[in-house]
Structure formats: C-alpha cells, structure tokens
Amino acid sequence: MDDKVIKTANKEAAQVLEWGESRGIETCFSRAEKLKSCPIGESGACCKVCHMGPCRLVGKNAEEEAHGICGASLPVVAARNLARMVAAGTACHGDHGRDMVFTLLAVAEGEAKDFQVKDVKKLYKVAGILGIEFEGRPVNDVAKDVASRLLEDFGRQRGEVNYVKRAPKKTQERWKKFGIVPRGIDREVAEVLDRTTMGMDADADSILTHALRAALANGWGGSMISTDLTDILFGTPGPVKAEASLGIFKDDEVNIVIHGHEPTLAEMIVDVVYEPEMIAYAKSKGAKGINLGGMCCTANEVMMRHGIPTAGGFTNQELGLMTGLIEAMVVDVQCIMPALTQLAKKFHTKIITTSEKVKMPGATHMQFDEHRAKEIAREIVRTAIDNFPNRITQRSHVAEKFPVIAGFSQEYIEYMQGGRWRASFRPLNDAIMAGRIRGVVGLAGCDNPRVPATGIHKFLATELIKNDVLVVSTGCSSASCGTAGFLTPEMALEHAGPGLREVCVAIGIPPILHLGACVDNTRILTIASAMADEGGLSDEIGGMPAVGIAPEFITEKAISIGCYFAASGVPVIFGGESPVGASKEVTKIMTEVWFERFMGALHFEPDPEKILAMALNYIDKAREALKLRKYEPGKFGAERVLMDMAARRILEKSAAPHAGVGGINEAGS
Ligand code: MSK
Q1: How many A from CA of 298 to the centre of ligand 1?
Q2: Secondary structure class of 311 (helix, strand, coil)
Q3: Which of 64, 133, 195, 369, CA to CA, is 20 to 30 A from 119?
Q4: Res 369 pLDDT > 70
Q5: φ, ψ for residue 109 (rounded to 5)?
Q6: Which residues face 290 on adjacent strands?
Q7: Do residues 129 and 224 lie in contact, with contact meaning Cβ atoms separated by under 8 Å?
C-alpha cells in the first residue's frame, strides 16, 4: 500500500479495503474521494432555513457585506448552522437517554421481566443525587422514582435539569450568570430550532449562547442520564479484557455483529448467544459455535461490561461486511451507514434493523420491544444461525487482533486510587500537581474517511502519553486506539513519558483509559467535577490542565458534545475544517468569548501537529495559572506516595465493589 493514498491508518482495515477496491466494491472511502464537499456549505456560509434561498453568503468581504435575502448576515447564518447541529446532537443523545429511562421504568414496574437492576449501589448513588429516599425501600420502588424524576428532565419547561447540581458550584454560577442553565432537554432543542428559523434571533452571540444551553442539556441531561441508567441496568463497568480488530471474526462460527449505540437489545443478545440450546442450534447448522462482536458504540457498551470484542469504529462497518464472515449485522440507532444494505447484497450478511427510528430498505426489520426482550434476541440469533450455511467463499479475511483493557468508569477510577474505603481522586490530583502527569486529555469522537481514518487518533494518543498526558478515550476514538493496540497497560511502559509511566505502574492503569461510548463522555464531566471537589487543582471544571480533542469528528452529536465541554470549562479542539469557518465573528465567539465566560472553547484545526501543540499549550497555561510546578519531562515535585495494588490489597480484603474484574493487575497485565 506504500505508493497509494492512505485511507485508513488501521493496517487490518487497509488490507480489507484493498481487497474490496481490487473488486470495485464501493465504500465510504471511495465515496469520500468521489464526492467533494461544497466549500460554501462546509464553512457554514449557506443558509437553508427558508425558501427564499438557499442563500450563499460569499465574496471578498462576506463577513461585513454579504446578506441573505432576509438580510441575515454571515455570522448569523453560521451561528444558526452551528446551533442547529447542536440541537440535532442533543436530540439524538436525548432520545437515547429517554429510551433508557423508559427501560428502567418498565423494569421497575415489572413489565420488562428479562431485565433487572444490576447495580443497586449505583441506583442508590443516583437516588441520592436526586434527593430520593432509598434506605430500606424495595429496589424497584427506588428505580421507579429515579426513572420518573429523570423523565421530568425531558419535558420540563421551567427550572433546571436535575444533574446541573452535580457540577462544581463555580461552574454552575458561570452558567447562571450567562443564562445557559438548561431547563428541559426537549425545550432547549425546540428553542434552538425556533430561534434559528427565518426572522427570529439575528444576533450571532445570542444564538450561540442558546446553543450552549442546548448542549448542556445533552451533557448534563440526556447523555448523563443514559450513562447512569445503563450502569444501573447493566452494571457499572470495571476493567475487562477484550480484543479489537476486523480479525475478531471466526471462520468456523456464526458471527453476529451488534452495531449502533443503545445497549438494551445488545445486552440480551450477549445473554442468548451463550445459551446451550442456541449453541446446539448453531452446531446443527455446521458451525462450531457463536461468535459475538461489536461495532461503533454498541461495541463500546458491551465491551465495557462483558469483554465482547470490537470490530472497530464507524469507518469499519462496511469493511466488516467485506470479511464475508458476518451472518447478521444487528443495528439499533445512530451511525448506521445506509450503504450497508447495498453492500450486504454482495455477501450473505443479513442487516437486521431493530428500532422504529432506524429502518432501511433491503434490511430485515425485527422490532425490539423491551417487554419481550429475550424472545426477540433469540429470534435474531436464530436468524443469524440460519444464515450460516449461506456463507459464500468470496471474502477478505484478516487474522491479527489486539488485546484491549476497557471498562474504566468514574467509580472504578476512584476505587483504583485508594480502594473501597479510601476511594478518591487524591493520587491523580497529586500526580498532576507534582508534574508527574502533565495534564489530562479526553480523546473522543468519530473516525472519518476524509482523513486517513483512525490515524490522527493514533498519532495524538502516542504523542500525548509520550508527553506525560493521561488520555481518557470514548466512542470511536477508543476503537481507533484499540485496533491500533494502544489499549493495554504494556503501552505505558513502551510509549508513556517517565512520570505517566510511574503513575500507571503504581496504580495499575493503562495510559489510555477507555471510558465507553460517545454518551459516556459524561463520565469525563463527572470525573472533572470530582477532581475539582478533591482540591489542589481548579475549584471548577474550567481552569483544569485538561483538554478535549475530537480529531476526526463527523456527527452533529460530536458538535453538541464539543459545545457542552466548552460551556463546562474545557477547551476543545476538533480536527478538520470548521463548519463555521466562513465567519470570523462566530469563530471568535467560540474561542475567545467562550473562554472568557466559561474557560472553555471550541477550536477547529485540521493539522494534527498543531492540535497537539494547542492541547499542550492549554495544559501548560492552566498549570501556570494554577501555580503548579512547571512541567519538565522526568523532573517531579514531591507528592504523596501512590498506593499500589499490593498496598491496597493489604488495606482491604473485600472484593471490588463494581462490575468486571478486581483490578488491572488481576485482569492480566
Ligand atoms: S459511534 S458519533 S462515529 S464516535 Fe458513537 Fe463513533 Fe462518532 Fe458515531
């Protein structure tokens, strides 16, 4: 592949892609090559909100002189475009969160018998946050109250979404000062759409301020609800071993892929594939067993809790089909390429849609219903097994796969820093204060076929840990790191700087912590809040030596996430061209004005080297402002002695309180 354009930095993916290209098979990579994006739309200068247009605001002095037919200026048009992306992203994650609430409610009311509250401790924690009495009450009664209270967050018209109070006081004060405390999730989404129609808000700053409010309704609303309720229903993650690669598929077994975002059906499928009757049925069709793998964020959900392997992120979904080894790709919601059904025709794979919200011509629709969850999961698995004898011989197959350690929840990270009785963020804060860890970067977001997919994640992950920056990853970034072999503790010794390496060895963690799916970016918010509460760094999320990076972003969800981090106080850098790059004013608001108000910002920077430099600069500036020891590689200040696993075992004899194995060292590193 040396003299060819590199389309994906993932070796196994490149191998499959090359096989497909040699047979003229179209993928997102070839379509990205063919389909040049419109530069006017790409930079946010096209207004499509009414039928006098579309108006294209271009020209030499467009910022000052160009206007739409209604008179809307370029900054207004660009601001509207960004705000609408935020609204769509918030709606998407909000609907996911709402579905999780309905599932918990159905479980609590005894209507979804195949599910149960798996993590009662987390249920009580959430009940405590919501001010719901839980002592001595039946678990399902508490679950019902929790679900009912959180359901109010979607339709509330006045007041605040419940989880706003989880943010540090100072962060909340900033939100109040600038009027961006989210009231209700649906309300903020509706208001963005209202404000940005023709003839409404014509002030770019005002539009963008409300966009932040809608983004916060995602981060501290829909997504956070989703993360919490998923933990309550299916278990709060703790470290597990798994594998990542397109090479996870097996020649002699029925391969089933679960793809999308909502883990409810996926959890049932995980149960069902291990049933002896199901395995016997697979054998009756000539297979040796059933092999379950994940794709995109459903993969992250089931990997975090069960160690189910991942075939990769967004750009791997078509390549997965091209292995010719998948009997059924079961999709739920979000990030499902419509191209799958066309491509599947060239192989034997059945694409099975399961959500009312995601239907695809050419797919088999098997509607999921939590009231008869296991029954539906069995039907799906049987359909996949029945397809095994139809496997064709034409396929590309790769064998290499990489070990992954995943499953780092806030609860587990706290636990591993002090054990069951002394769980805290003290060691991490101390290591940052001493300069052993320079700062923290949340490496998140999609993988994009318009750049060498997964490559920028790989580059940044390596460079950041080399610079003693602890990386927490989510979404397809985790898949990119995992399929590159970067999610093992051994990586710490091989690539991490000396300070980070010491800390990783002492507490037994990898230098890149896989925190879950893209909704689980909220784990970063609660971790940052806990670090602020712990003391010694900033007393709010803003001002921490922490940065968010989404180097290959694609989706509106990513834009909403970037904005909720910016509003919460985290400078965020997105890769690629800015979707509002046409307007200097909007760019200034998102960077300088938001930094002044919230200590966060949203930048767009296509050059990976510059992304790295910007991130390190933000971290060093934050250290300086906090009067922390200047970061110098290999030189550290005094800090408390980190408690290692051996010391922790002496301190406590009891088992880890969370799901998964007891700790990284026990997990096989
Ligand atoms: S799946 S939103 S491509 S992270 Fe969560 Fe990946 Fe981005 Fe979809």
Answers
A1: 10
A2: coil
A3: 369
A4: yes
A5: -90, 5
A6: 254
A7: no
The CATH topology of domain 246-390 is: Rossmann fold (3.40.50)
**Is CATH 1.10.645.10 correct for 410-650?**
no
Tokens of 166: 């989880």
Same-fold call for 74-234 versus 410-650: no
Q: Record the pTM.
A: 0.94
Q: What is the β-pairing status of strands 546-550 and 571-574? A: parallel
Query: In the beta sheet, which residues pair with residue 352?
Result: 330, 364
H or E element, residue 256: strand 254-260
- With a CB cutoff of 8 Å and minimum separation 6, the contacts of 197 are 49, 50
Q: Is the CB of 89 under 6 A from ligand 1?
A: no
Hunting for tokens 């993969």 — which residue is that?
299
- Determine the pLDDT at residue 424: 85
Any atom of ligand 1 within 6 Å of the Cβ of 445: yes
DSSP string, 212-251: HHHHHHIIIIIHHHHHHHHHHHH-----EEEEESGGG--T
Each residue of 221-238: pLDDT tens digit?
999 999 999 999 999 999
Give CATH for domain 74-234. 1.20.1270.30
> For the chain, which residues make up each domain, given as ranges?
3-65, 74-234, 246-390, 410-650
Contact 77, 88 (CB under 8 A): no
Q: Is the pLDDT of residue 491 over 80?
A: no
Q: Is 414 helix (H, G, I), strand (E, B) or coil?
A: helix
**How far, in Å, from the CA of 444 to the mean position of ligand 1?**
9
At 116, list the tokens: 């149960």
Please name the residues in contact with 48: beta carbons below 8 A apart, sequence gap of 6 or more: 54
Distance 350 CA to ligand 1 centre (A): 22
For residues 89 and 558, give the distance between their C-alpha atoms in angstroms, rounded to a whole number. Answer: 7
Q: What are the structure tokens assigned to 110, written together?
A: 């005894």
